[in-house]
Amino acid sequence: MAGGEEFRLLVVVSWWFGVLEAPAGAQNVFCYGAFDVTSGKCNDLLGEGVAQDDCCLNHQYGFQLDRNGPCQACQAAHWSDWSPWSPCSVSCREGVQRRNRTCHGRNGPAGFCQASARQWEMKACSPMACCPRVGGWSAWAAWSPCSVTCLRGLQTRKRTCTNPAPDCGGSCLGDGAEQRSCDTNLICPMDGRWREWSEWSVCERKASNIRIACDELTGLQARTRTCVGRAHEGKRCVGPTMDIRSCYNVQLCSLKGAWTEWSPWGLCNPPCGEKPMKSRKRECKAIYPNYPMTVEGENGKVLNVSFWGRPRPNCQPLDGQGLVVEEQAPCQNVPPCED
Ligand SMILES: *[C@@H]1O[C@H](CO)[C@@H](O)[C@H](O)[C@H]1NC(C)=O
Ligand SMILES: *[C@@H]1O[C@H](CO)[C@@H](O)[C@H](O)[C@H]1NC(C)=O
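== Complement factor properdin ==
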């Protein structure tokens, strides 16, 4: 009977499948839409119980034989790129570093790598030929002299990193120099300074009692100055404290005069207020007599002679004035003062 024949054939076929190990492609797997080459992980589960061949129609896919097993790529098994070298196992002298790669994909004919196998490589490495060694300090050197010669200052002492010297890029721990304050127990010296010269004294001939005013007769006069502020061994002032010169005395002498040209305009006054004015003037100045301006002193030394005193000049009156003519004018185009 035909029905019985058909049944036997099916039994034979299923027997064959049972005897031969089921071909890999027919196994049911967990099928994933993405295989991550870097991590070797399966992502994006598409279904379970899918025939491996069906899942792997797309070579980008990946699969797991069981839920907790390794993920395998659908493409033919092949080695991943080598990982970067690991850091060296030591920071100085010699150590090692490793890298690895993994086999991803469906196991195919012999000669290809075995899926999820891993290979290692290791090599020697030496970041520095020697290891840094900390050095030791020498004894402190003597303190330097105080930085100032009076009052308080600073002094320093030093030590060197030589006992022993550090090795292989090492250093000493701590500071190589130290400072402290120092007291000289001395008050700072103050140098002397000259005051301004005094006014010249009256031009006269003291010894002989001759009146020399308003005449072609030389006298002598002096001025002095004092050195002030010297203290605590400070420097003395340099130079003489007295100055003597030859002179003609014209104090209150009546002399012929001449008008000066106009002076330059003076300042505008007031600087900020209403209607500022400027002024200039001409003055009647004495014409000094034509006396010789040098005399022979002791040892034939040539001495200068100076006129001394305020003479009374006589000029032709100008605008009815005898000594000073003044002119005033408003300052022009004055902007206001700010604030
Ligand atoms: C081995 O390779 C993996 C993947 O590239 C990487 O993450 C890991 O760091 C590597 N291990 C070593 C010791 O290099
Ligand atoms: C005398 O006067 C001349 C000319 O003014 C000047 O160069 C010289 O230095 C003066 N001599 C003294 C000792 O003041």
